[in-house]
Amino acid sequence: MLDETRITRSGALKLSAMTAVGTAVAAVAGTGVSIAGAQKTYGEAPSLAAQVASGALPSVDKRLPENPYVVPHKWLTVGKYGGTLNMGCDNNEWGTSGFMAELQYGHSPLRYLRDGLEIGPGLAEKWESNADASEWTLYFRKGLKWSDGHPWSVDDILFWWEDQVKVEELKEYPPDEARSGKGTLMTMTKIDATTLKLTYDAPTPLTADRLAMWVNRMIGPRWMDPKHFLQEYHIKYNPALDKATWVDTFREKQQFHRNPGPTMTGWMLESYEKAQYTKWVRNPYYWCVDSAGNQLPYIDRIEHINYQDTEVFKLRITSGQIDYVHGAWTGLALSDVQTLRAAEAKSGMDLRLWDGGSGTSSMYFFNWDLADPKMRELIRMPKFRKAMSHAFNRSAVRKAIYFDTGELTSGTMSPKALEYNVPGGKAAYQEWRDSA
């Protein structure tokens, strides 16, 4: 028998592969638009309202920033609070924990909109650059708070930059947006608690684009960490730490998807058992609202289970015991489509095939640093790599693996990428696609 608190498959909280992305993932971020008028009255989940009434939490207006991030997507309608989202993956550790954090925007200064064709605000509500784009200023929302209620500030970014990127032992390497076209590192300057200036020694016109392109503090650059929480585990702030082990401990405590700790995402980790599950609960200080002023997210809990046996996992899906399944880390393939479609009436799920955003699926990469000197020399020859590319039977692969779907390509970015949506971009894409 399924938990009665889980989301039902009827009514406003019915979930499918499409609506789950809308309400559970994409609903937590978007461009900043003002709520009608000067509204300062916000809605909140009943479970949080009960904690406010008991004195365990401050009121919702004190938990939100002065100017919350309002989700703009036209396809997003106002939802209802409550329920547990049941998810799963096959026997994959990243799918159990890392993927859950990867799904959640929360730490990104800026973000993509319209599949990367536009850039919108995130934690930073506005940004600007000087005439030659060598100086960028980010204006973050006032009143942001970590999930434990501690105020967020530019100091949390500087903690990442000064005390991690610049500390060799931590191996926290600077991201692309931290370098100018000359390859030199930027300088960060704190203007005040919510204003940060980035200064480069050369024009860096792609800075905003690079700031928006990642789910930061997960698959992208960290860009911030809760200083108030992590400084206890950093040897600069706690010299008594063991010099031989502090790095490993610090790294472990950083992982908010495996160790409950402060986060800026919509859900925060409640518990984690390696190779078994992660359980997440709503972040009461999440900084986003819907168009009606209701604090997001709508869903109370997420329970993500690791199924050691892929066939058992598929059975759970087809029998209706899973609410949302994302293609990666599931053991599902195109060969499962017929079975999943046939079970839709029973499972209550809609099967959606969607564009993952990548220009390529299967690719081969040669190791340029192979130990064998003769092979290494061969691999580094452009003619050899072009010959291998010509020899690769893409049509056979498309037929055998992708059921004759998709476009034959030599390994480009997606044709929908921002870089191709400029004058001459389509021709550049086709030239790359058709090259060796």
Order of helices and strands: HHHEEHHEEEEHEEHHHEEEEHHHHHHH
Rg (C-alpha, Å): 23 Å
Q: What is the CATH class name of the largest domain?
A: Alpha Beta
**Fold-level CATH name of the largest domain:** D-Maltodextrin-Binding Protein, domain 2
Structural class: alpha+beta
Major sheet: 4 strands, mixed
Low-confidence stretches at least 5 residues in length (pLDDT < 50)?
1-37
Mean pLDDT: 87
- From the N-terminal CA to the C-terminal CA, the straight-line distance is 55 Å
- Widest sheet, order of strands: 2-12-10-9
CATH architecture of the largest domain: 3-Layer(aba) Sandwich
Strand content: 5-15%
Question: How many separate helices?
Answer: 16
Shape: globular
- Helix content, binned percent: 25-40%
Chain-wise SSE layout:
Layout: H1 17-25, H2 46-54, H3 60-63, E1 69-70, E2 84-89, H4 93-96, H5 98-102, E3 110-113, E4 118-121, E5 124-129, E6 135-140, H6 155-165, E7 187-192, E8 195-199, H7 207-212, H8 227-230, H9 246-254, E9 267-273, E10 277-282, E11 288-289, E12 301-306, H10 310-318, H11 337-342, H12 344-347, H13 373-379, H14 382-391, H15 394-401, H16 425-433
